[in-house]
Write a structure and sequence with these properties.
- 33% of the residues lie in helices and 19% in strands.
- The chain is an alpha/beta fold.
- A five-stranded parallel β-sheet has the order 2-1-3-4-5, with helices on both faces.
- Helix 3 (53-63) packs parallel to helix 4 (82-90).
- The structure holds 1,3,4-trihydroxy-5-OXO-cyclohexanecarboxylic acid.
- Residues 12, 73, 75-76, 78, 99-101, 103, 110 line the site of 1,3,4-trihydroxy-5-OXO-cyclohexanecarboxylic acid.
Length: 150
Amino acid sequence: MPMKIDIINGPNLNLTGTREPCVYGTRGIPQLLAGLQDKYPDVEFSFYQSNCEGELVTRIQESGFNTEGIILNAGAYTHTSIALRDAITAVEAPVVEVHISNVFAREEFRAKSMIAGVCIGSIAGFGLDSYVLAVEALRLRYAGKLPYGV
Ligand code: DQA
């Protein structure tokens, strides 16, 4: 059985590639997904994007019991959403928090994450390669190779 990873993107991330290219770059999500599937042919990827908080909660609830890992870029909901935090806590799958930009080098409000404390780890600042690093983290976790029983 291939390892299943669900990639979940929150609000405005559908505009990646055209939105504020100096912050988020010029590559789009379709290119990212094609690149991931090429690089990791043994992983079964699924993808979901929504601009609505409740829909993101529903997706976490669904894939959180059917996949071996979730990569979550919650966009601006990262900084506000207790509902997303509770959804992550409620499911079995390990969740990696991802950001394209370095949220710690931007406005102060972006340095606070409501979800970081319930994710197995966070990756920020490496453009769309943040997602690649998150796949690496989930693969290590799946192989039981992360320290401290994470
Ligand atoms: C983001 C960072 C958030 O602060 C912002 O609201 C986003 C994108 C990122 O990927 O860098 O929408 O999550």
